[in-house]
Amino acid sequence: MTKLHVSEMEDIAARHPEIFRTTFWARFRMPLIVLAAVLYGVYCWWFFAIGAVLGNANWSLAGTYLADWVSYEVRPEIRMDDHGTMKIVYPRFSPLGDNPNPDWLIAERQTVTRTIEVPAAARTTSPKPTTSFMAPGAALGSAAAEAVTTAPPATETRTEEVVTRAEVVMGRSTRIEVLPGEVTVQHGGERLRVAIDGRTVTPETQPLPQWATQKRPGEKVVLSFGIAGWAEIEGDEVSIRKRFLGWANFVFDTRSPFFDKSASEVFSLIAWGDRIDPARSNISLAWNNILYNSEWQHLDVWTKLLQTIVMAFVGTVLATLLAFPLAFVAARNITRSWISNQLTKRFFDFLRSVDMLIWALFFTRAFGPGPLAGMSAIFLTDTGTLGKLYSEALENIDDKQREGVKSVGAPSVAVKRFGVLPQVLPVFVSQALYFWESNTRSATIIGAVGAGGIGLKLWEAMRTNSDWENVAYMVVLILIVVFVFDGISNALRSRLIGRAHH
Amino acid sequence: MAVNTLPKDFSESGALIERHWQELAAKRRLYTWLGLGLFAVAFCGSLWFANETNAGKFFDRLPYLFDFVGDMIPRDALEIFRALFDLPSPYYDGSFKYNYPEGRHYITDSFYVPEYFYKMLETLNIAIFSTIVGTVFGFVFCFLAARNLMPNWFVRGFVRRMMEILRAFPEVVLAGFFLAVLSLGPLPAVIAVSIHTIGALGKLFFEVVENADMKAEEGLRAAGANWIERVWFAIVPQVMPNFISYFLLRLEINVRASTIIGAVGGGGIGELLRLSIGQNHQAKTLAIVLLLFCTIVAVDQLSAWARRRLVGDQAFQLAQ
């Protein structure tokens, strides 16, 4: 900046002495406010024990959860069997379906005939046809309770196909080769051979490369390959976790006849394929499969989202309808009675100050979980807020129009209709639109305390910590709804009161 | 009001104008009725849908609402204050319904903070701290998003989109995610409310900055000041009263938001309220409601008083 000469500065100071004679508060308020904020921050650091909490946080878990938002894992396990053979097992509900044969897992198979001892107690569980991802415990509970059938020990000679060598391609430079008794891992130009003997795990090179960890000698070796996934080598088993980008089985789940078909295949099946289910057409079957996708539950998610939208909409409309007449009673220039003014205003304050949360919990108890509770909570809170805003708008109107209408002998209703309403209606509607839009946002969180809608579903999906991809899906839907409603409300408001006012 | 028949004594052109006006008015009326009809259909459909998908139906549950209200009445008026101050209750029957001394937070051997006051303090601290965090970040970002200070549309657009996403991102998801990572405690609530506040305040702040008088900035620019000097000496003094007013407004909103976040697992008074309503503890529920109500009224009044002193009555519209 250009520097002033000292004499010039003194000259200015002499001409405007009042600028340099400020109070202590005026001079130091900025640093004082900053200091107070910093001190308060230190206090909160202690109060919330922020340092300790952040230090104890499981940040690697955070990375996995975040990765789960947009990707999924396939988890084959290569188990060591007797007689130098192996078995590849996928967990139930694997995203690859019942007959997985991925091209990144190369298995060499052999048909062998051998005599094996059948275990004395064989647990039989019937496969459960439907499960919901939101309550896996409930779905599995009945399966776990199945009776255990016992059979006498016996030997049996079986001819079966076994795996003698398996190779997992984890990435461009990452391969895991599994042979009976030996695992060879290649990653980033490094090579690690691990011997396994059914119980202990012995890496052949020490020290281990950076991507491999073993807590104690003989225990499992954990290999992490970053975003490509990770693997665990145990004494009798190699568990692979290969990560894929995207949402698994977003359209058709593994039980659907359309599963694992390309878009063109599905299209041709729908358009001119034979009926898969003789009872109905392929298109209705496909649509039904999409809606009742057990992993993504599209229909349920959409219903819940619609509930949230409805909660915000109906709540705001009812609040507007009730606040509108009450605001006329509350405005002191419209209703000239101090008692009714004060009563209505205090009523608005009461509705506003009893938090939306309290109303929501209260009505959830009364109506049961569902949109009625959220709707009632929004209705009552917003009646208070809108009533206050409306009555303030009414108190600030221009009196000339009212006088004009009154002077021609119009009755009181006509004075309000033609003298008052035209002035405030745009403001009223614009405020209502604004609250509609902001309620769409708050309805989500109200839902999470039990008032229905997508909030509850989100909360349930997050509780298990294993369905983050469903959370991501719902968040995307919510963001779309919020942005669309933002746009609609902004467009309507600027048409109503012009761009300058909001 | 509408005139439906043409008066006889119009001239030809007058009649034409009149007819044209009536056509326009009829069209307008048609659109109004159509809009209202559409609105009514949407409204009734919404009501039906809400009732249909609710766990209990409205008219079936209505009597229970009054039962519930009746259940809420405590055994005597003092019971509420016993619950509020953790004083022993004469009705103590071994359940949690009437055990009050359990939740005391002892500071010295004899002086304690009652549980609900402590939890209320926690909620208030969540609100204040996250509003400060949000204000600090919103302050930094708003100058990058204002058209008059950031000519680069790419930076401006990026910052604005980011704020929009922070604002619209459901708080419950943020809270749930950090709850999973950080384990139980108030910190997930702080992070969730802070992130939302950054987006909300950032938007309000940059709108204030865009309406600032640019003459002071021009003067500084003519004297050769750099970007930070121009912002700090020309813009900040102008916008500071409005910023503080919005800060206070946000504080009011955040006190409510942090109780709600508390109820979904973020600690604080909200969680206690949810539990006590769920377990039918009337006196406890009423004590918490009373405490919350008084706190919210106090915060609202304080903030309204401070804002009136700062910016006068003009900045009193609610904004979120």
Outline of chain B, from the CA principal axes? Answer: flat
Pair with the biggest interface: A-B, 71 and 67 residues
Task: Give the CATH superfamily of the largest domain in chain B.
Answer: MetI-like
Morphology of chain A: extended
Main β-sheet of chain A, in a few words?
7 strands, antiparallel
Q: What is the H/E order of chain B?
A: HHHEEHHHHHHHH
GO cellular component, one term (chain B): plasma membrane
Keywords (chain B): Cell membrane, Membrane, Transmembrane, Transmembrane helix, Transport
Subcellular location (chain B): Cell membrane
Membrane topology (chain B): Multi-pass membrane protein
Describe the structure in your own words.
Chain A has 502 residues and is of the alpha+beta class. Chain A has three domains: 19-57; 71-108 and 163-245, no CATH class; 298-501, MetI-like fold (Orthogonal Bundle), CATH 1.10.3720.10. Chain A is 52% helix and 18% strand. In chain A, α10 crosses α12 (371-395), α11 packs antiparallel against α12 (371-395) and α15 runs antiparallel to α16 (468-497). Chain B has 320 residues and is mainly α. Chain B folds into two domains: 12-68; 113-315, MetI-like (MetI-like fold), CATH 1.10.3720. A two-stranded antiparallel sheet of chain B has the order 1-2. Chains A and B meet through α3, α4, α5, α9 and α11 of A and α1, α2, α4, α5 and α6 of B. Chain A: It is found in: Cell membrane. Chain A: GO terms for molecular function: ABC-type phosphonate transporter activity. Chain A: Residues 305-489 form the ABC transmembrane type-1 domain. Chain A: Belongs to the binding-protein-dependent transport system permease family.
